[in-house]
Amino acid sequence: MVTTGLLIAEVNVNTMCELGSGGVSLVSMAKRTLGVAGVQFSCWSYIFIHYALLIAYVARSSDILTNFLGIPLWESATLFSFVFGGICYFGSQRFIGAVNGVLVFGIIISFTSLVVAASGDLHLDALLKANFSAVPMSIPIIALSFVYQNVVPVLCTNLEGNLSKVRTAIVLGTAIPLGLFLVWDGVILGSISTPEMADKIADPLQQLLSTNGVVGPIIQAFSFLAIGTSYIGFVLGLSDFLADFLKLPAGENKPLPYILTLIPPLMLALLDPEIFFKALDFAGTYGVLVLFGIIPAAMAWSDRYSSSSTSIKLPQLVPGGKVTLSLVMGAAGCIILSEILENFMHL
Q: In CATH, what number is assigned to the domain containing residue 42?
């Protein structure tokens, strides 16, 4: 994920130099390096990722609200969608930023509380066990957890194309969540006490929720707050994209993009309440690994080695030349292919 972020930054800065302006989007980069086909793949992957994750967020948040408020699932899903969707539609940028700040503060408090409360009953021997056959199936979710590449163009613009600063920001910026994820995984996986229990438990969180009365509410609060802030970001991103796709006047807050953003995920989440993990898996495999796996390497390949590329060749942020780019595209392609074969075998 660090490699593909650096590749996007490299292509973005080259595109900025060629066009003579900042604020270059992923679509503009794909159009310049990969042509119409690249734009189509980028756009549809972007839409797919956003819809799949919005479905997952609605499904999970409605489950949490139903357990907390004791209301039917359809009511909690509708309540979550329209409250947070209403914040995005009616709220000013300052208000949305304030709400998001409160949610992030709550995430920090609940995450710290969760680690402190759950680490008191860790089984360190459980962390020494491994199931390497599960690795391929885990990669899409891992990739999805570390998605940040959509903000790389903004980062490049804010840092005025300074490649050294961009590289440092990406490497250090991803190291911080990596540390948090490792702590989170250590606490959750360390809660499995025996191998027999590990074979029976599909989600270790469920064990914590059922065996630790203190940890359960904290997990629910942490999950809901994390979903809330992510939901706001994805609603704003997809509604802006759809407004541009529909050629609506810029600067006007029209209801149609928000209706198209909020209603389909709500309906699909209600049709299949167990869709959370399936939506995450599909978003990671067919969305993230295409848009932020294959496409960045393909854009960099075209930018570096295409005879039609006329931009000034800046220093490469990712070493290894064609070998590295081939490995990135090949690895993402193999995971996608294995997922397709896995789904086909279960039909």
A: 1.20.1740.10
